[in-house]
Specification:
Layout lengths: L6 E6 L9 E4 L10 E10 L4 E10 L3 E8 L6 E5 L7 E3 L18 H12 L5 H14 L3 H14 L5 H12 L3 H13 L5
Antiparallel strand pairs: 1-2, 1-3, 3-4, 3-7, 4-5, 5-6
Helix pairs in contact: 1-2, 2-3, 3-4, 4-5
């Protein structure tokens, strides 16, 4: 695989061995919304370092199942299940399609995914997608003010759902900002939200 390309499109997956699939380089800077399977630059995350690899992702659902990396000798490529990895493997590029934010959440070193998403915000077509992924990780890391900033980006461009308002109300509650908490609870309910 060309190491300058971040996203490869799978054009033929007729073989059971992912290493035999036919792929084409793309000029995508983020994972696109269109339905396909892609191999995306990724990072296997340790507490003190990362190892470059690739992750197979099906869009638009953002389902990740396969990791392509060098074998233990560092010579040949191997395809392994993402579920068999001892350490987190996260995409090294943000996504223009919605999905589970934990795709970018590495417990070993959450800052790696945070940095990837912050970098992706500048190139994102759907800034709300990237901002929401970022907001949820920052929330889980108890970085409340930064999480609010991320969710506010989503609010400005159009949130994916009313639950962004619920997240904002809960974050403001954690800061003791009851007026803001109430404001976002009202927005949540006005948009049809039910807890």
């Amino acid at each position: 695989m060309d190491t300058n390309t971040s996203v490869f499109a799978v054009t033929n997956a007729d073989n059971d061995d992912e290493l035999e699939w036919i792929i084409e380089p793309t000029d995508f800077m983020l994972l696109p919304e269109e339905e396909n399977t892609y191999f995306v630059k990724a990072k296997q995350v340790y507490t003190d370092r990362t190892i470059d690899c690739f992750i197979g992702i099906m869009t638009p659902e953002r389902i990740a199942e396969t990791v392509i990396k060098k074998n233990k000798d560092g010579h040949a490529a191997v395809a392994e299940s993402i579920y068999e990895q001892e350490n987190s493997v996260i995409p090294a590029v943000a996504s223009n399609c919605f999905g589970d934010y934990t795709l970018y959440y590495s417990k070993e070193n959450p800052q790696i995914g945070i940095d990837i998403l912050i970098g992706g915000l500048y190139n994102a077509t759907n800034k709300n997608t990237v901002a929401e992924d970022l907001g949820y990780i920052l929330r889980d890391e108890n970085r409340v003010e930064e999480a609010i900033e991320a969710f506010k980006i989503s609010e400005e461009v159009g949130p994916s759902s009313e639950y962004v308002y619920l997240e904002l109300s809960r974050l403001y509650k954690r800061l003791g900002m009851t007026k803001k908490q109430s404001e976002y609870e009202r927005k949540f309910k006005k948009k049809g939200g039910i807890e």
